[in-house]
Automatic annotation (TrEMBL), chain A:
Residues 4-150 form the UBC core domain. The active site is at C88 (glycyl thioester intermediate). Signal peptide: none annotated. GO terms for molecular function: ATP binding; ubiquitin conjugating enzyme activity. Keywords: ATP-binding, Nucleotide-binding, Transferase, Ubl conjugation pathway. This is E2 ubiquitin-conjugating enzyme. The keyword ATP-binding applies. It comes from the Eukaryota. Its EC number is 2.3.2.23. InterPro entries: UBC (IPR000608), UBQ-conjugating_AS (IPR023313), UBQ-conjugating_enzyme/RWD (IPR016135). Belongs to the ubiquitin-conjugating enzyme family.
TrEMBL record, chain B:
CDD domains: MATH. Residues 251-305 form the TRAF-type domain. GO terms for molecular function: zinc ion binding. Keywords: Cytoplasm, Metal-binding, Repeat, Zinc, Zinc-finger. One of its GO terms (cellular component) is cytoplasm. Residues 96-134 form the RING-type domain. It comes from Planoprotostelium fungivorum. It is found in: Cytoplasm. This is Uncharacterized protein.
Length: 151, 510
């Protein structure tokens, strides 16, 4: 049996549902309230516009002292997201703070879609493509969005 | 001294003298770190070096009592401050960004960011920075916030008995206790500072039902509950027994003293008498015919039984007679059985007897004068439950045996109705040489069943010409000092009884 769900998680969950941020939805799984099904809409003006990206988010027992574990489930062509959906984002690692929340994490990821950062890459080949031929990379990213992220 | 303060009890006691953050009333067992202690640490107390020990021991001791749920109620059994606060205005400023609940023992960073003491300690264990502004921070740099404390003390809250536990219908993995407004709960509000004093004497506090039931009782209703509890004991008006009120309904359908109607005949009686009524009196009760044992299957109402008896007299009679003859047959079978058993027993006794051999000595002094008598008889002796004697005719019993001694064994005449099978030998003993005795051997005889007149003469068994009279002389050794010595050796082979009844001879059996 899982331990009691901390009030903080209950509170965050309630707020995610009652005051959702535009373009972001996070729903806890029925059988594990620490596991969230997340959907992020590709931000307007980004190569991901029009796509809906599925992610999974898991709150470990240490949360909020340890960051949530987040991963893209939908394939995405992005210099900071690798083939396995892993995200290169400092607040998910060394820059985590217990004052951050699920909401802030998801907003940051949404921001990462608007502003890819090829200087701090996780997917080296995508980052190289992005640095050498940004227009070409964006075209590929759009194509991937059309191929994988269209509902 | 400082280390002592860190034990749970000491912390609470210490908290009493210092400004307290016991926000949750009398049941609160663990406080945040006392401000007192913290200020001493901050003033670079000589014991400052103990701070590392402090964070290790005190946090652990907190964890013993406080759930890992940061900032959740210190009173594990009660609602949290967040549940009880009644003005939401400005409250967000006094919520901890780590546990997202109202600050407990507020601590701040150099830039004034506020946290619960416990929450920020845990965070600093991981990262030595303020979680909000990331300014470098360690335990000793944390500061109290008098403004926050003051605000928190002045917070308007409900009495904790304003809320009640929601009966959980949730799955076990979400075992969080939910507090909902108790519609009959305490309506009072006051500042957080006053909460403890009020709640310690609040009449809405739950109390125990004096009848041990699980009733919702409050301090202020305990007395009236004595007369209202559904589990209280009352006396049954009818049978005067003590019963629990809740079981009254049950009792009412069982109480033997309550007057009820017989559902068959509508007669009125106490419930306790119903069974007897139905068994013995009720005219509407179906009862079996008195001749059911004889095979009449009729089941009629008691009131109709006389008519049945009248109508079925002939068939009853036939049944009775048939039944009786069956019974007689059975009785005779049983009787046979029991006789057979008895017979078996007798036979086994006979067998035991039959194996016994008896030697009876008959010594006659003055034979020379005795032999002039025509007949001499021995004393009676008992053998196999019958009486016997020996008889001797010194000169033969009848003319055809003159010149001979006749010697017989007799069954005493009062042993009627029995037959005895014997093997016996009669002998006249030789005094000089025991081996030359005169013996008549191998008699086998059934002594008479009924004394028959025509057999009067010879109801004894033996030999008419046992031995010539002149054989019995001193010279031959058969007399010594004029003593004749006769010996009978008898073995009982069987005894038979014959039973005669008035009309029939049931069985002869052997
Ligand atoms: Zn907190
Ligand atoms: Zn700060
Ligand atoms: Zn009250
Ligand atoms: Zn009660
Ligand atoms: Zn009664
Ligand atoms: Zn009746
Ligand atoms: Zn009958």
């Amino acid at each position: 049996m899982a331990a009691n769900l901390p009030r903080r998680i209950i509170k965050e969950t309630q707020r995610l549902v009652s005051e959702p941020d535009p373009g972001i939805s996070a729903t806890p799984s029925d059988d594990n309230l620490r596991y969230f099904n997340v959907m992020i809409a590709g931000p307007t003006g980004s190569p991901f516009e029009g796509g809906v990206f599925k992610l999974e988010l898991f709150l470990t027992e240490e949360y909020p002292m340890a960051p949530p574990k987040v991963r893209f489930l939908t394939r995405i062509y992005h210099p900071n997201i690798d083939r396995l959906g892993r995200i290169c984002l400092d607040i998910l690692k060394e820059k985590w703070s217990p004052a951050l929340q699920i909401r802030t994490v998801l907003l940051s990821i949404q921001g990462l879609l608007s502003a890819p950062n090829p200087d701090d890459p996780l997917a080296n080949d995508v980052a190289d493509h992005w640095k050498k031929d940004e227009a070409g990379a964006i075209t590929t990213a759009k194509a991937w969005t059309n191929k994988f992220a269209m509902v | 001294m400082l280390l002592k303060v860190l034990t749970g009890d000491e912390v609470v006691r210490n908290a009493g003298s210092a400004p307290t953050f016991n926000l949750l009333g009398p049941n609160t067992t663990v406080q945040g770190i006392t401000p007192n202690l913290f200020s001493r640490v901050n003033q670079s107390d000589p014991l400052f070096t103990l701070t590392s020990g402090f964070s290790a021991t005190s946090v652990r001791s907190f964890e013993g009592n406080v759930a890992m749920d940061y900032g959740q109620s210190r009173d594990l059994d009660g609602p949290t401050l967040d549940d009880l606060v009644c003005e939401e205005k400005d409250i967000e400023e006094y919520k901890c960004p780590i546990c997202m609940q109202i600050l407990q023992s507020p601590r701040q960073c150099k830039n004034g960011h506020l946290y619960c003491a416990l929450c920020i300690q845990k965070s600093l264990d991981k990262r030595a920075e303020c979680p909000q502004c990331r300014v470098p921070l360690n335990l000793s740099e944390l500061a109290k916030s008098l403004v926050a404390e003051k605000h928190l003390r002045a917070l308007k809250v409900h009495c904790k008995y304003y809320l009640m536990r929601e009966e959980s219908k949730k799955p076990a993995h979400n075992a969080e206790v939910n507090w909902i407004v108790d519609p009959e709960g305490c309506q009072e509000t006051f500042t957080q500072e006053e909460a403890e004093r009020h709640e310690s004497k609040c009449g809405y506090a739950p109390d125990l039902c004096m009848f041990g039931a699980n009733c919702r009782v409050r301090k202020m209703t305990v007395e009236e509950h004595r007369d209202a509890c559904p589990y209280r004991t009352i006396t049954c008006d009818h049978c005067k027994k003590e019963i629990k009120l809740v079981s009254l309904e049950d009792h009412n359908v069982k109480c033997p003293e309550i007057v009820i109607h017989c559902e068959l005949c509508q007669a009125e009686m106490k419930r306790g008498h119903l069974r007897e009524h139905r068994r013995q009196q009720c005219p509407e009760e179906d009862i079996p015919c008195a001749y059911s044992e004889q095979g009449c299957d009729a089941q009629v109402k008691r009131k109709q039984m006389p008519r049945h008896m009248e109508e079925s007299a002939a068939s009853h009679l036939a049944r009775v007679s048939q039944h009786l003859s069956q019974q007689l047959f059975q009785m005779s079978e049983d009787f046979k059985q029991s006789l057979k058993a008895r017979d078996d027993k007798i036979r086994s006794l006979e067998r035991a007897l039959a194996d016994q051999n008896f030697d009876i000595d008959w010594k006659m002094k003055n034979w020379s004068s005795l032999k002039k008598k025509s007949y001499l008889q021995s004393g009676e002796f008992e053998l196999a439950g019958l009486k016997w004697y020996m008889g001797i005719y010194p000169n033969g019993d009848l003319p055809d045996a003159r010149g001979h001694i006749s010697l017989f064994l007799f069954l005493s005449s009062n042993c009627r109705g029995q037959k005895v099978g014997l093997r016996f030998s009669l002998r006249i003993m030789n005094h000089r040489n025991p081996n030359t005795k005169i013996v008549q051997n191998g008699f086998r005889a059934n002594f008479p069943l009924v004394e028959r007149p025509e057999e009067q003469v010879s109801k004894g068994w033996g030999a008419k010409r046992f031995t010539p009279c002149d054989e019995i002389t001193e010279a031959n050794g058969y007399l010594k000092d004029d003593l004749l010595f006769i010996q009978a050796s008898i073995t009982v082979c069987n005894i038979r009884w014959e039973v005669e009844t008035a009309n029939t001879s049931i069985v002869g059996y052997w």
